[in-house]
Amino acid sequence: MSQKATNWMKLILLTGEYADVHFMRISAHKLILKNASDVFKAMFRFDANKERTENANVDSHVEVPDVEPAAFKVMLSFIYADDLSELDGDNAMAVLYAAKKYNIPDLVGPSLKIPIPKLRNVFSACAQTRLFNLEIYAENG
Q1: CA–CA separation, 75 vs 137, rounded Å?
Q2: Distance separating alpha carbons of residues 62 and 13, to the nearest angstrom
Q3: Rounded to a whole number, what is the distance in angstroms from the first to the last CA of the chain?
Q4: Which of 14 and 123 is assigned the larger pLDDT?
Q5: Locate the BTB domain: which residues (predicted)?
Q6: CA atoms of 114 and 45, how far apart (whole Å)
Q7: Among 18, 29, 54, 140, which residue's CB has the most CB atoms within a 10 Å radius?
Q8: Rounded CA gap, 41 and 76, in Å?
Q9: DSSP 55-68
C-alpha cells in the first residue's frame, strides 16, 4: 500500500469518517443516571411503562453520537463514584460539553479548572466556554 493510501486509512480510522460499523458499548444503570440528572430522568421516564410490560432482562440501547466515549466514561465515573481521575487536558472540553448537555453542574467546575497549558486546544476551549457563557478562570493558567 502506498504511503498516501496508508495515511488516508489512518485518518479515516482516527476520525471515524465513512464508518458504517461501531464497536463501542458503555454500560450504566438508569436508576443511578436518573438520580444524577434531570435530563436522564426525562430521557428514561418514557421507558418506565414499557419496562413493566417487557422482559426486564432486555437492555436499552441509547445512542449518544455527539459525546466522545472517553468523555462519557469520565462523566459516568463522576456520577457513580465522584471520580475525576481520568479528567485531563485531552478530554476536558468534551467532558464540559457532556456535563452541560446532561445538566450535571458539579462536573462543570472541574472541567473548567484544567490548567490552560494542559488543554489540547486552547482556542477550542475558549470558544466552547463562550458558547456556554462560562469563564475560564485566570488563576487556572
Answers
A1: 22
A2: 23
A3: 45
A4: 14
A5: 9-88
A6: 34
A7: 140
A8: 15
A9: -TTPPP----TTS-
Question: Distance between CA atoms of 51 and 74, rounded to whole angstroms?
Answer: 28
Q: Is 93 within 8 Å of 125 (Cβ atoms)? A: yes
pTM: 0.68
C-alpha cell at 6: 496508508
Q: Which residue, 99, 88, 86, is CA-closest to 129?
A: 99
DSSP letters along 34-46, please?
HHH-HHHHHHHHT
Provide the grid cell at 80.
Answer: 457513580
d(CA 6, CA 59): 38
Q: What is the pLDDT of residues 32-50, one digit of tens each?
A: 999 999 999 999 987 665 6
